[in-house]
Amino acid sequence: MARPPDKTLRPGGAKNHGFWLIFHRPAVYDVRPNYRTQNPNKETAMSRAFNFNAGPAVLPLEVLEIAQKELIDFNGTGMSIMEHSHRGKAYDAVHAEAVANMAKLLGANDDYQILFLQGGASLQFAQVPMNLLGTGQSADYVNSGAWASKAIKEAKKIGSVNIVADTSKEIPTNMPDYSALNYTKGAAYVHVTSNETIAGTQIQQFPKTEAPLVCDMSSDILCRPFDLKQFGLIYAGAQKNLGPSGVTLVVIRKDLIERAPATLPTMLQYRTQAKENSLYNTPPTFGIYILMLVTRWLLAKGGAAGIEKINRAKADKIYAAIDGSGGYYRGGANKAFRSIMNITWRLPSEALEEKFIKEATALKMIGLKGHRDVGGCRASIYNACPAEAVDALVAFMKDFQAKNG
Ligand SMILES: Cc1ncc(COP(=O)(O)O)c(C=O)c1O
After folding, report:
1. Is 240 one of the annotated active-site residues of the chain?
2. How far, in Å, CA of 162 to CA of 160, rounded?
3. 329 lies in some domain
4. Distance CA 311, CA 58 (A)
5. What are the beta bridge partners of residue 212?
6. Buried b (16+ CB within 10 A) or exposed e, 213-242
7. Residue 369, domain extent
8. From ligand 1's centre to the CA of 214, what distance in Å?
9. 351 and 291 in one domain?
10. For the domain that residue 47 is a member of, what is the CATH number?
11. Pocket of ligand 1 contains residue 193 by CB under 6 Å
12. How confident is the model over 346-378, as pLDDT tens digits?
């Protein structure tokens, strides 16, 4: 099955050398040699950018290397996992491991079911109320920013919504004190957004609510431990912390599965995929395979608790660079709600922000432009973002300030 090695097709191989040279300008801060010496797999590491994209985002190099190795011949089956039937043995094992690993990482007991769906978190904005918001009921929503606003907009199309707090327009970006809010008695559920990807804010402590707590965890799932038992349902698009785009994780408490009206189209009822272990129709098999590899990687890192330490250390370094800049860099979020996944900041002028992003890009630090709605800079430092990328960014920030302060 093995093919002769083709240097031109390998990352960092002959073909990529020109690419490397274009980017390798010994300009402001030469980060590349440092990165290369720290990574034992020099060839692959050489062609890797420092990826700060908000999503789709950086994946663990180890995962990509396994996927690359297995791409043409998965486990000696003579075909890619993409070419296997979703009802066959090879895929079945991948699917089962993805579910089992996810349950382990989340500490999910038998009360919860793990689903791999499609349509992104954006479909969950509608699917949650379609399934859980019965006629004559209302649901509580916290409007903490752009993503919560989108969830609210969709829910309003389905039923009655109470906004229990709105910090979406506050600058610095902010969140309410979730434990002090006046949640509605008898609400169908309470919806919160654990991490506002654009604003760079993150819930520090989830509230204990009487109604089932529903949470959009798209941009911070498994970046830290949390108690799943506090939640009725959580959902997350995979493309930040879990794998490639195209898979949506939904974890639902089993008693909520049957709430959906039978008149709802089959594919939109949670019970449909719950009954069939997410195999009612063809699932995004390759995406689930990568997600499974990411769960293995995360388990090897010590799960959510292990990765949290690494994440906090990375975030602390960037926040320290912001706070230690004498006001040259200004953090976008209220300090009390700073995110450890998406870090936002401004420079003294938009012209300097543009220069900063341009020079960083030339050093292969990719994705530092803030969301188009808010401007400024943003570093998304998800679980798979290596510490070397953060170190390079911090060094560049200091250097940039020294030259342009
Ligand atoms: C917090 C949050 N919710 C929802 C979404 C939308 O996700 P999707 O593109 O998977 O629909 C995003 C995307 O960035 C997000 O960051």
Report:
1. yes
2. 7
3. yes
4. 14
5. none
6. bbbbbbbbbbbbebebeebbbbbbbbbbbb
7. 27-58+303-404
8. 15
9. no
10. 3.90.1150.10
11. yes
12. 999 999 999 999 999 999 999 999 999 899 999
